[in-house]
Design a protein that fits this description.
The complex is a heterodimer of chains A (483) and B (425).
Chain A lengths: L2 H12 L5 E2 L2 H5 L15 E3 L4 H14 L3 E4 L16 E4 L6 E5 L4 E4 L5 H8 L4 E2 L12 H7 L6 H4 L6 E7 L5 E5 L7 H5 L8 E8 L1 E2 L3 E9 L2 H13 L6 E6 H11 L9 E9 L1 H17 L4 E5 L2 H12 L1 H4 L6 E4 L9 H15 L2 E7 L4 E8 L6 H18 L18 H4 L2 H14 L29 H4 L7
Parallel strand pairs in A: 2-4, 3-4
Antiparallel strand pairs in A: 1-2, 5-6, 6-10, 7-11, 8-9, 8-10, 12-14, 12-15, 13-14, 13-17, 16-18, 17-18
Helix pairs in contact in A: 1-3, 8-10, 13-14
Chain B lengths: L5 H10 L3 E4 L13 E4 L3 H13 L4 E4 L16 E4 L6 E5 L4 E5 L4 H9 L3 E2 L11 H7 L6 H4 L2 H4 E7 L5 E5 L11 H5 L8 E8 L1 E2 L4 E8 L8 H18 L6 E6 L6 E8 L3 H12 L4 E3 L14 E6 L5 H15 L2 E7 L4 E7 L2 H18 L3 E6 L2 H7 L8 H11 L15
Helix pairs in contact in B: 8-10, 10-11, 11-12
Classes of the chains: A alpha+beta (483), B alpha+beta (425).
Amino acid sequence: MTELERLTARLTAALPPDAVITDPVRLRTYECDGLTVHRATPGVVVLPETAEQVAAVVRLCGDHGVPFVARGSGTGLSGGALPRTDGVLIVTSRMRRIIEIDIPNRRAVVEPGVTNLAITEAVRDRGYYYAPDPSSQQVCSIGGNVAENSGGAHCLKYGFTVNHVLAAEIVTPDGEIVELSAHDPGYDLLGAFIGSEGTLGIATKITVRLSRAPEAVTTLLAAFTGIEAGGQAVSAIIAAGVVPAAIEMMDALAIEAAEAAVHCRYPAGAGAVLIVELDGPRAEVEHEFAAVERICRDSGAFEIRVAASAEERAAIWKGRKSAFAAVGRISPAYIVQDGVVPRTALPRVLAGIDRLQEEYGIRVANVFHAGDGNLHPLVLFDDAVPGEAERAEDVSGRILDLCIEHGGSITGEHGVGVDKARYMPRMFTGDDLDTMQLVRCAFDPRGLANPGKVFPTPRLCGEVPGVRKGAHPLVEAGIAEQF
Amino acid sequence: MHNQDMPDGWDALKGTGVAVRTAGDGDEVAGVRPRWVALPESAGEIAAVMRACAAHDLAAVPTGGGTKLHWGAPPTRCDVLVDLCCMNRVIEHAAGDLVVRAQAGVTVEALAGVLAAEGQELALDVPVPGTTVGGLLATGIAGPRRFRRGTARDLLIGVTVVLADGTIAKSGGKVVKNVAGYDLGKLLTGSYGTLGIIADATFRLHPLPAARVWVTTTVARPVTETERAPAVAGFLPATVAPVTESPLEPSAVEIDWPDVDGPCTLAVLVEGAAAAERAKTLRELTGEAAEVTEEPPPWWNRLPDDDALLELRACPAALARVLPALREAAHASGARPAIRGSLAAGTLHIGLRGRPGQIADFVGLARDHAEGTYDGRVIVLAAPEETARRAGIWGRVGALPLMRRVKERFDPDHRLSPGRLAGGV
């Protein structure tokens, strides 16, 4: 009997009858997340319904020294929820209760399996919404958002998951249930936990901030002959002191793909389109809209469309939101990257990507959150052509190098996961990574929580060095304070 | 083992080449006088000081403007004060990227001056003049606009830190959108110098708002003895809720209640395009007696200055119960509170006048009510030593065991600001 089999027997005894999956066919359905190039069939899958059950599973994993991986809806794009064949996959899809909606305090308390959009749907008719809006928001879970510190098109103005979570109940890798609250003095453990990609524990209850729905929303689409003119408009908008809710850009190849897929009918002949969304108090939006429209014309926009209704707004967004899937129409396979550069470096980085396309003979479609410099280059290739997948992978890596060279990041919102762990040493020094590892060791000294993700080389934590071996028992119990 | 051999430590510090001096009056950390003061000029120099401290088991406490050195618990030992006053350079202001990187010793006022020249700002209010970037992060202090913009942790995008063993590490970077690796900056926010010495920090910026307008009104004027408290309590749901729930997006909603038996002033800040127009609409919500001004009221973004200073954190809707409870605590304890803060964000600062025992009693009553009835916190930011000892500084800290484990990994020998935080951390 393997360790995993012994553990599975105990999991079956500890959980409700249908909460443990061992059937190989059913296990296969969990073999990857949204990044399908990485696959591994989990050793066993559990579907807990309560925090106590999650804690029990984690404690049993600890007893047997078996690694565990948490998974929400499995929409992640970095392989953060890639299972371990020798481990347990803890799926939170049965924890989808909205526990409390508290409008006077502008917050909601939800379980991790609740979808991002479900929160907004639950409070929309009272004039509120949950601000972070990853493009998978209809499906993705709030627990996954917390793990990845998810953003979305509107995070330019409103920030990320970490700016909208007020408290979280987590199960630590020791199997303890702990409340992390923004009210607590001391280290911002809540902030450090959000975005830790499941390596510091599993969120089992999340208190999110609800935002007042804006009084007015205006969406504008501007068509330019080329990406340079569009980029110039973006810089001028920012320089004018306007902070739009979103500024998105697509290049000619991305427009072509979107046209083929969803017939978004963007202006013919556009070498780049810019989508600018403004929201807020009506008086403010009207004022800023006038400035944005003028800037776009001054920067050479040859056509500007303004959405006058929710339907027209949806039509403008349709092409942008379909872009990832749409490139499937013009290329058999593609890699999505998520690098970030300082906004002012965009023209140089895009020129660099052009050079890479020529050098490798690989096409790259550019879709990006232009306001915050978050690129989503889609590296197109044909996996039937020998060597092309490898060349595409090379181009992809060199795009990340370009981002790092210009002072940017290898990932803006998709996370490091298993996919980009090997690029971490290009962005951070050994000392930086070792210091981050101290956090990991504080939470998870045995390295059982989502091992192999985020960091390239797993390290042993070891005992805490030094003369002190733990705190005084009374202090540990929270009964006494040491001064 | 505690090294008492002064010449060894002194020589080691001098041997780093970093400017050092003997500590004097005014160098105390919450009443504890260090032996020496080191004045590094770079992250590398901080690292050299920390390595010397490690070699000789010297405890170090960082300081910036020194404006909040009396906050927090006294360090259990303090040999070297690491004064970052020489690290006062704005390293890079990338105006086009709305990002600034500054050394830890830059004051928020100096930073604001540099940013304003390009029409930008760090959209935080810092209620203690002379606060440095490092001190802002280490204490996590924030002012009125926390309602709209959050606190320092929400605008911090990158940090360089020197650990107890002299390791220089960074996390984040200079782009706003970045999820690569753990966010060490978050851990350092509110750390009171116990995890590492912040060498520099990078923040996201905002354009300076086109206009700022305050709508100010005095409420709960005492009519009869019995009506005073209920008037304040009743006022909150009746007037503040429509303001915060309006789509006019105020940036801050503050009260100033200098005497719990007297009137209370409410001030709402509206900023951005068309601020005046929005302020007019807000005035209709707050009442015709409200004044609309382009200058803040004199108490705006200032902490009450008294014998002791508390921070109360609560869910905003709980404040209707909190304010009468604070008034009761004042009457029961004999301490006299001056209350100021962000109604909309649920954070109040309370200045207290009174004898140490009265203040300790007030803290006990307010904290029992906070922790017992609305999951709030009452933290003693600054107080006379006797008060702090009697009342306890931190109150409940839910995740204290985890905090302690982080401390043990970062500073296993407890050489960095030991004991400054809760539970001996």
